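Anyone else keep sequences and structure tokens together like this?

Example one:
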Amino acid sequence: MSKFLLIVNPIARRGNGARSIPAIRAAMTRLEADFELIQTTGPRHAIEIARQAAGADYEAVVAVGGDGTVNEVVNGLIQAAGDAPSKVAMGVIPVGSGNDFAYMMQGDDLDIEKACERLIKGENKLVDVGSIACDGKDFRYFANGLGIGFDGQVTIETRQIKLLRGFLMYLWAVIRTIIFHHNPIPVTVTCDDQSYTQQLLMVTTAVGKRHGGGFYVTPFAIADDGLLDVCIAGNLSRPAIFPLIPRFMKGTHTTHPKCTMLLGKKVTVSSPVGLAAHIDGEIYATSAKHFEMKSLPARLWVRC
């Protein structure tokens, strides 16, 4: 039995996953690592691979891709574990567009060689995950965060952008969303015993600090505090949003009068209007009216 199972999303960052395989094989071979490598063939394939691998004797199951690949591996490992912490640690070799979960666990140094070294020499850390259901169905786990409203639409916009990659792709998607999809909506947000009903631009609920490859929407988030961090952006006009972009990039938007930051174990978002949403940077819903998120403390072992 190999020590490490590498689950590669070949289309991560528009083919960067497949292009990275030779470098990953070379790095793991130099480190004398015992590993297997499997490429996914479509959406949710990594969930099934990870779920089956959780019952084997691997030291770590490794997501090779971006945040969407991480999300699928997390869902497979947590499903296999039931209500207990994951049976096997998850590693990450970040070759995707955003790589926000990898940033949360590993910091700025995200090159392939260093990521492979962490698999061999790193230690396991127990962190939280979140759960979400929309309109009472499509239950999923998330590792880093999810966005409802504006940032859900941003994720949809990224799928239309062909020439840009990484953070620049997300930044251009933000600008396109401001121009073409600015639409504050009536929303009720409940975070534990606090409730807000108003016209809102977006609601982000997160375990991690960074989203969209470089936006610190929830800059105070701690991955193992048992709580979800929430950022609510109020009814902002188009001209008011543009100056906020650099503040979201630095995490200094938290003092803006139209931004509300919350902490809680359970968060619900409801609206009479269908809302777009992303989960760990992947499209989760395009027109859902009720979302329920919960913190699941100490559920995922991560090699870092």
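And example two:
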Amino acid sequence: MSLIDESSSQGDEVDFKALKASNLCLAERLKLEHYDCTECSAAIKGEQISFALGFLVSRLCVRGIRYDRNASFGAELSGLPDYPEFTRALNARSIMSNTIPLMTFPEGFPSCTWHPDIPSPETYRELVRRYPQMSY
């Protein structure tokens, strides 16, 4: 993002409050490199997605997604082929909540669907029926 690149090269701080108020699209947020300890802590707990997602550490919200029993935390991050870690976590959470998601690309298939919750045997049977490649 040019505003951030310009201000970073000058050593100035970017006004992230103003950026948040500007309603940047998700694609732009995925480019923002800004660490906010409070936001990352909230993301890990499943309370809120970090605004700036450019740093890998900001993507710790996958833990929050997996632990959110309402299966709604982070839903806006679903289906991003360039960021499969989000889709995998969202798909795993859905499966652990006994809902089988529509999975359209292999990188979005979760490898762990039993932590922190275990889906019902019926869910596993239907999962393997729909996605035989997940019968491990």
